[in-house]
Amino acid sequence: MLKKVKRLFVIKTRFEAYLIIYALALGAMTRGANYTLQFPGFGGYLLMAATAGAVFLGGAKILDAIRYEQEARKAEAEKPD
């Protein structure tokens, strides 16, 4: 039973990854907008850029990890026993 619940939290496809990255970006931009209100001027915009940059880096890492896992599964399937 625990394995079935655990599988819900594993990103298996690029589509799922894009959905998660979108949700992360939405939250980051909301936080960034709040930063521009709390810290008017250059500091707020710098913090907003940092939140956007974090999503870019995290999204790239997620997509790379999915590609690596898919290639590993493909290599395992092609591997002769």
Q: Can you offer a commentary on this structure?
A:
- With 81 residues, the chain is an all-alpha fold.
- The chain is built from three helices and no strands.
- It starts with a helix and ends with a helix.
In summary, what is this structure?
The protein is mostly helical and 81 residues long. It has helices at residues 2-7, 14-38, 42-78.
List the main descriptive attributes of the protein structure presented here:
elongated, 81 residues, mainly alpha, 3 helices
List the helices and strands and how they pair.
Blueprint: H1 2-7, H2 14-38, H3 42-78
Helix pairs in contact: 2-3
Q: What is the H/E order?
A: HHH
Shape category: elongated
Helix content: over 70%
Percentage of residues in DSSP E strands: under 5%
Work out the number of β strands.
0
Low-pLDDT sequence parts: none
Structural class: mainly alpha
SS summary, helix count: 3
The average pLDDT is 92
Task: Work out the radius of gyration.
Answer: 18 Å
How widely separated are the two ends?
31 Å
Largest sheet data: none
